[in-house]
Automatic annotation (TrEMBL):
This is LysR family transcriptional regulator. The keyword Oxidoreductase does not apply. One of its GO terms (molecular function) is DNA-binding transcription factor activity. GO terms for cellular component: protein-DNA complex. Residues 3-60 form the HTH lysR-type domain. The keyword DNA-binding applies.
């Protein structure tokens, strides 16, 4: 008997479930067929991979080692199948592109659309990822390039300024301060604030707090949200005001008033980052296009 993918898939699922019925349901095969497949695999290897009893299934030491050593084979084959199918459709490669809220609400969608039109043979796998996680993801090869908030100074990371925006205040449309065309950050010192929470917003939040402290106050946080849409919804509901990027002008919301903060000269930079040692041909094409397109180069 020759070993094939069917045997490896069956053992991988059974090794994770350690339960024949659940494994057969995941594989969509009958339990007797699964048992036969595992027996064929054990016969081929010349050693038991499982200890079976009426109550439980356990891996032998040989089974544990075999499961570890073959864990990535199925994923690699699935990846190869997908690459072949994409090649048949004229797609020669792919790039994993990470983005943040500020990036995707700014100039990034226009750039990605232009790139797709110019290079339909390169598939872009878009992944939302907080700024704080993008450097690690690049160095661990989980993504190829990211668009993050802020700047990057890591030695192994290449970077390119992509876009920047101003800080703005967002208020409920019926808020008294919405009657004014421009505001200062100091004008908001007696207001309650809505902020983003968690890793996704930590760097931006620290920057806003620093700006407020420089003006002699700390914002009173009333509620927090995990996404831009959540922040906008809470502001519209009257939970407080918020500081955001002027990129919000690209996605106006009914019920919100957007006002320029004339005393905040700082910008919200969006930076493209990638691993310097990444020799991907697709990444080289992407970076060449990026250098010609990026708004800050205009």
């Amino acid at each position: 008997m020759s070993l094939d993918l069917r045997h490896l898939r069956a053992f991988a699922v059974l090794g994770s479930e350690l339960h024949f019925r659940r494994a057969s349901e995941r594989l969509r095969v009958a339990q007797p067929a699964l048992s036969k497949t595992i027996q064929q695999l054990e016969d081929h290897l010349g050693t038991p991979l499982l200890r079976r009893s009426t109550r439980r299934v356990e891996l032998t030491e040989a089974g544990r080692i075999f499961l570890i050593e073959t864990a990535g084979i199925g994923a690699q084959i699935d990846h190869a199948v997908e690459r072949a199918r994409k090649a048949a459709r004229g797609v020669r490669g792919e790039l994993r592109v990470a983005y943040t809220d500020f990036a995707i609400n700014g100039a990034l969608p226009h750039f990605l659309r232009s790139f797709n039109e110019a290079h339909p043979d390169i598939y872009l796998d878009l992944i939302f990822m907080p700024t704080i996680h993008q450097h690690e993801a690049i160095l661990r090869h989980r993504i190829d390039i990211g668009f993050l908030y802020g700047v990057s100074n890591q030695q192994l990371i290449g970077s390119l300024p992509f876009d920047d925006n101003n800080y703005v205040a967002i208020l409920p449309a019926d808020h008294p301060l919405a009657e004014r065309k421009q505001l200062t950050l100091k004008d908001l010192q007696n207001e309650k604030f809505v902020f983003g929470t968690g890793d996704s917003w930590m760097i931006f939040r620290n920057q806003v707090f620093s700006e407020c402290r420089a003006r002699g106050f700390l914002p009173e946080v009333s509620l927090e949200a995990t996404s831009s849409d959540g922040i906008f919804g809470l502001v519209i509901a009257g939970a407080g005001v918020a500081i955001y990027s002027s990129a919000i002008g690209n996605m106006p919301r009914q019920g919100l008033a957007i006002r320029q903060l004339v005393d905040m000269d700082a910008k919200l930079p969006i930076t493209a980052v990638w691993e310097r040692g990444n020799s991907s041909e697709e990444l080289a094409v992407f970076l060449h296009f990026l250098r010609r397109f990026r708004p800050l180069a205009r």
